[in-house]
Amino acid sequence: MSTHPTNLLPPSISPPLCGGSRPGCIKACVCTIAICLGFAHIPAAIADSPATQPDKPAITEITPEQTLAVEKGLEYLASRQNGEGSFGNSGAYGATAAITALSGIAFMADGNLPGRGKYGDNVRKAVQFIVRNQQESGLFTTSASQGEMYSHGFATLFIGEVYGMTGDDQIKENLQKGVRLIERCQNPEGGWRYQPAPVDADISVTICQIMALRSARDAGIKTDAGVMEKALAYVKRCQNPDGGFSYQATGGESGFARTAAGTASLYYAGKFQDDAVTRGLDFLARFIPGRDQLDEQGHFFYGQYYAVQAMFLGGGKYWADWYPAIRELLVARQNRAVGNWEGEVDPDYCTAMALIILQMPNRYLPVFNGKGQGS
Predict the structure, then answer these.
(1) Residue ranges of domains in the chain
(2) 340: which of 68, 149, 217, 227 lies 20 to 30 Å off by Cα?
(3) What's the pLDDT score for residue 368?
(4) 49 to 149, 260, 277, 319, 363: CA distances (angstroms)
(5) Is residue 218 within 8 Å of residue 31, measured between CB atoms?
(6) Neighbouring-strand partners of residue 255
(7) Which residues contact 342 (CB under 8 A, 6 or more apart)?
(8) What is the pTM of this model?
């Protein structure tokens, strides 16, 4: 059976943004199917952690309760897809490229691909919606999008994962255009902000672009090495002496969600054995899910989405302590009557985020596991 999405529609046309281009590519590294998300040699310190064995989930990672929660969550999310393929129905944001992309990723984390698997049709329709809403400039956005580079980063990540797992040439150009826009819109500090223009930066939007670039590179798309180098330097400047990360490089207090984003950024930029990574992980380890009132800080699902990735990549005790805690917390918080999760932004957004977090042990997505041909 073909894994290629079919009947993809052409992107919409609008004036280009962020003129110019950056030639070159991030130098591809070589790794096996085992996770590295880094470079040819996996550090011995993490070589046998759960995060480096994508095809061997620990027996304690998957529980019957987690399995049931995921099944109900996926059923709920599938029922929420709009006719044109989008997600995001009841929140202030409406149907957006970001929520649609995250929902598509949630289905892919279960092993579904466009036209393949129980939810393959949902993934296919999500891809169609995303590419229909790509502007001529390369920007993935919708009229409901608030903070266009958030939507663009998540959408480019989604298309990168689909392309990396299918090799479908129908979406290759869409992915390339999305990557070029990210590269053009990097600001002089090395980061990105809400709008597709190189004028400002923060850690929250920057992680979205770093992950998108990583996914594209792993899928074999040429990217500019200098862009990732500058992004890494920007992220490091956001780190405080306590190991946490501030919202912007100009300074500010450390916070859980932005530290999760900052630490994950270091990994996706290729830093594994680095004091900045260890200090970030140690800061996050102070907030084991269920032991702190993180909801009061806001951005619960956003923070946990990046925290579980950082701990997964950290492996060892970081992952062993973190995943069971967030798994149990999310299972307990699910609305079992309908299968969703609620909180910030929109129920579709919260449910997609929760499903991605819960399905990390599946190790299906190349961006998490270094399975892309460019890894």
Answers:
(1) 44-366
(2) 149
(3) 84
(4) 34, 19, 16, 8, 13
(5) no
(6) 245
(7) 335, 350
(8) 0.84
d(CA 375, CA 29): 5
Kindly state the DSSP code that residue 357 receives in the 8-state scheme.
H
Question: Which residues, 6 or more positions from 100, have their beta carbon under 8 angstroms from its beta carbon?
Answer: 85, 86, 87, 88, 126, 129, 130, 155, 158
Question: The domain 44-366 is classified under which CATH number: 1.50.10.20, 3.30.780.10, 1.10.520.20, 1.20.1440.230?
Answer: 1.50.10.20
339's CB contacts (< 8 A; 6+ apart) are 72, 73, 75, 76, 351
Q: Which residue, 296, 297, 320, is CA-closest to 308? A: 320
pLDDT at residue number 48: 34
Residues 42 and 50: their CA atoms lie apart, in Å, by: 13
Which residue, chain included where needed, has tokens 């809400």?
Answer: 194
For tokens 């919409």, what's the residue?
12
Contact 72, 116 (CB under 8 A): no
The rounded distance, in Å, linking the Cα atoms of 218 and 123 is 20
- The whole-number mean pLDDT for each consecutive block of 10 residues of the chain, a chain of 375 residues, reads 38 35 30 28 33 54 96 98 89 75 98 97 98 96 78 97 97 98 98 94 97 97 97 98 96 94 95 93 94 64 96 94 96 96 92 98 85 40
pLDDT recorded at residue 129: 97
How many other β-carbons are positioned within 10 Å of the β-carbon of residue 180? 20
